[in-house]
C-alpha cells in the first residue's frame, strides 16, 4: 500500500509464505490478491453493490457474466447479507446502513479469495449490534482465512482472537512488540509489565 508514496523507505522484512513482500522482485498485484484489507470505516467505491464485489475478480481476469455472478453471490453469502441485498444489487453500496457497508467491504475483500485478511479497527465505527454481527463473522471466517485484526478494545480482542500481540510506539516513535502469546494466557497472566498495565486499564 505504500509502494507509490514518494520518499517512503522500508526497513526490515514482512514475509508471507517465506517470501519477503518488500523484496524488489515481489509481485505486488499477486500480493494484493493474497492479502485482503478492511479499514476502520467502510470505504466502498461509488458504484453498485454488485460492482463493489465484482471489481477485484474482474481485475484478476474473471470476466464471464455467470462466473462473476457466482463470485458475488458466494462472497455476499459468506458475510451473511445475500438475502438482504440480492434484489437490490444494482443500487449504490453507499446507500446501505453503515454495518452493511462494512460487511460489503469484507465481501469485496473475500471475492478474490485471499489467504490473509487484515482488519484495522473494523468495528470502531459500528453500533453494538453491527459489531456483534461482524465479530461472529470473523469467527466463522477464521476457519478458512488467517485474520489479523487491530483493536484497542480489550474485550473484543479477548472475544475474537486465538493469539494476541501487544505493540506500542515508544518515545522515539518506533513501534515495538512487547508480548505475543495465546490470548487467554496474555489476558490471565501477561509477562510484560507494560502489557499488564494496558490490559488492566492503568493507561490507554
Please explain how this structure is put together.
This protein has nine helices and seven strands, in the order ββαβααααβαβαββαα. It is α/β, with parallel strands linked by helices. It has two domains: 15-161, P-loop containing nucleotide triphosphate hydrolases (Rossmann fold, 3-Layer(aba) Sandwich); 162-204, no CATH class. It has a three-stranded parallel beta sheet with strand order 3-4-5. A two-stranded antiparallel ribbon has the order 1-2. It starts with 14 loop residues before the first strand and ends in a 5-residue tail after the last helix.
Keywords for this entry:
Rossmann fold; 2 domains; 7 strands; globular
Secondary-structure map:
Layout (H helix, E strand, L loop, with lengths): L14 E2 L2 E2 L7 H7 E4 L10 H11 L5 H14 L3 H4 L12 H13 L5 E5 L7 H14 L4 E5 L3 H7 L2 E7 L5 E8 H6 L4 H7 L5
Helix pairs in contact: 2-3, 2-5, 3-5
Mean pLDDT: 91
Basic shape: globular
Q: Which superfamily, in CATH terms, is the homologous superfamily of the largest domain?
A: P-loop containing nucleotide triphosphate hydrolases
N-C termini distance = 28 Å
Give the biggest beta sheet.
3 strands, parallel
| Lateral arrangement of strands in the main beta sheet | 3-4-5
CATH topology of the largest domain: Rossmann fold
User: What is the class of the largest domain in the CATH system?
Assistant: Alpha Beta
SSE run: EEHEHHHHEHEHEEHH
Number of domains: 2
